[in-house]
Specification:
Elements: H1 2-35, H2 39-52, H3 57-115, E1 123-132, E2 140-143, E3 156-158, E4 163-170, E5 175-179, E6 186-192, E7 196-201, E8 210-211, E9 224-227, E10 239-245, E11 251-255, E12 264-269
Antiparallel strand pairs: 1-2, 1-12, 2-5, 3-4, 3-12, 4-5, 6-7, 6-9, 7-8, 9-10, 10-11
Length: 301
């Protein structure tokens, strides 16, 4: 057995050497064939390429498929990144949309305030509604203007359309506005075109009733209700609303002001108004503002 192995090794080594030499010669011949610049050799090379390369498509198919798969994966990765960026931009656009809508609504409120036609003799102060303390028993709002801005109890407050209420309680930096719907509110009014005088009395409902009409038969639903100026507290001609009838037949006022969206209020300076002496308690940690009392009169000499 040992002799057989040694004999096979003696025949195998020369055979491998011979095959290696033949392979080197073939490669050298192919190299030389591809390096020769001759028209005949060029045609020969072209014929060999036409015969061999088309037959190798089956061998190149896996390589081509792998390359295409890698390209598709890179394309999908780019699409996923772009989709993520678009989602982020969409969230930002939604936030900007909400901000734009809020600014649009705020701008509309301010434009409404600018479009209100008032007596040119009246001046005003515009304040922002800080809080709404509406309740079943008291309906009022808080403004960010107060005594530092010259506000006085009893002045009228309007939104962009109609009368909202009156100042009832002034602190240094804030003021309370009692709404027309509050049960303590009583506004002298005139109903047009009949010219009937009445009182718009709040009852904590969205449509306060009309009381003390001189002749109810002359009043019809849809008639315009404005402030009469009686008593000298409110200026005359401020729009309050329109007359409407409830299911029970009682006349009420459909208020012109939008009480659902009180954001800005215009406080009218009515310098000719009478001073309200029995003002309500002023909001604030320091309690009501002490009213200035006149010094006692000097005794007669």
């Amino acid at each position: 057995m040992a002799m057989d192995r040694s004999s096979s090794n003696d025949f195998g080594r020369p055979l491998r050497r011979m095959l290696l030499a033949v392979l080197i010669l073939i490669l050298l011949g192919v190299f030389l064939l591809w390096r020769i610049d001759s028209p005949r050799v060029e045609r020969f090379r072209a014929q060999i390429t036409d015969r061999i390369v088309p037959n190798l498509d089956w061998a190149m198919a896996p390589v081509t498929g792998t390359v295409n798969l890698l390209r598709d994966f890179q394309s999908y990765q780019r699409l996923a990144d772009q989709n993520q960026e678009l989602r982020s931009e969409l969230r930002q656009m939604q936030a900007w949309k909400e901000a734009a809508l809020q600014l649009e609504q705020e701008n509309a409120r301010l434009l409404d305030l600018n479009n209100v036609r008032l007596d040119p003799r009246l001046t005003y102060i515009t304040g922002v509604v800080l809080a709404d303390s509406g309740s079943p028993f008291r309906q009022s709002v808080l403004l960010n203007v107060g005594a530092r801005d010259g506000l006085v109890d009893g002045w009228a407050a309007m939104d962009g359309i109609g009368l909202v209420g009156r100042i009832s309680g002034v602190a240094q930096n804030t003021a309370r506005v009692i709404l027309l719907t509050d049960a303590s509110s009583r506004i002298p009014a005139t109903i047009q075109p009949s010219g009937q005088r009445a009182i718009v009395a709040g009852d904590n409902s969205s449509a306060p009733p009309v009381d003390f009409l001189e002749n109810p038969d002359l009043v019809r639903p849809g008639d315009r209700v404005i402030s009469s100026g009686d008593g000298g507290v409110f200026p005359a001609g401020l729009l309050i609303g329109q007359v409407a009838a409830d299911p029970g037949g009682r006349l009420r006022v459909r208020l012109a002001a939008d009480y659902e969206r009180l954001e800005f209020l215009r406080v009218l300076r009515h310098n000719g108004s009478e001073t309200v002496s029995d003002s309500a308690q002023v909001i604030g940690p320091d309690g009501p503002i002490a009213q200035t009392q006149a010094p006692p009169a000097a005794p007669d000499q």
